[in-house]
Design brief:
The protein has 224 residues and is of the alpha+beta class. It folds into 2 domains: 44 residues, no CATH class; 117 residues, SET domain (Beta-clip-like, Beta Complex), CATH 2.170.270.10. The strands form 4 sheets. A 3-stranded antiparallel beta sheet has the order 3-9-8. A 3-stranded antiparallel beta sheet has the order 4-6-5. A hairpin with a 2-residue loop joins β8 and β9. The longest helix has 13 residues. Keywords: Chromosome, Methyltransferase, Nucleus, S-adenosyl-L-methionine, Transferase.
Amino acid sequence: MGAPPKLSRAPLVRAPGESDDDAHARFRREKCIGVECDGDCLNRNMEIECDPATCPMGDKCQNRCFAARLGSKVSVEKAGRCGRGLFAREPIPEGAFVVEALGELISEEEAQERLATARANGDEHYYMLAASDAATKGLVIDATRKGNEFRWANHSCDPSCRLEKWRCGSQDRYGIVALRSIKPGEELTYDYRWASFERCYCGAANCVGVMDGVKKNPVGAAAR
């Protein structure tokens, strides 16, 4: 029996004189056929924010959380042995966008230099997130000097949120989304999946003791 035939992606059918970008925009527009950008929205399922120029929902589109800054109400409070943490100030439903991860976009080499300097100075508070996909390979988001509330979101082995990467126009943007319904006053955490084996103080019943979710390079996520 011979080897199975190689599969290839079907080509996008373009109208005469239509560019690839316009064809993709038309394809997304034609597939968004619901009454709102809900779970049936093709863009939402692919973690792509809708383009206001092509989304048939227009101003009613709810799939532009990053662009419209539609995050949840949060606050920074004391979090026991973890120092400070990020907490919900309102009920947050499952799947809701919580907050964007903002910071300086630097090279991995510069991130390693900053980490070495911080450790040499006895500073254990640094907040870095690896942006290591095909488009941003080797880049790191450093929220230590410049950033927002996201930097205070602690690690947990049983997190209330997950980190997601969304495509917004020509940019990749990162943020945390609620894994379940979250009550006001509840801490907002996510799994750092960090590789440096830092001690974990999340207190979850399934806590593994260290932040070792993915054993890759040491610039993997924020640290406390």
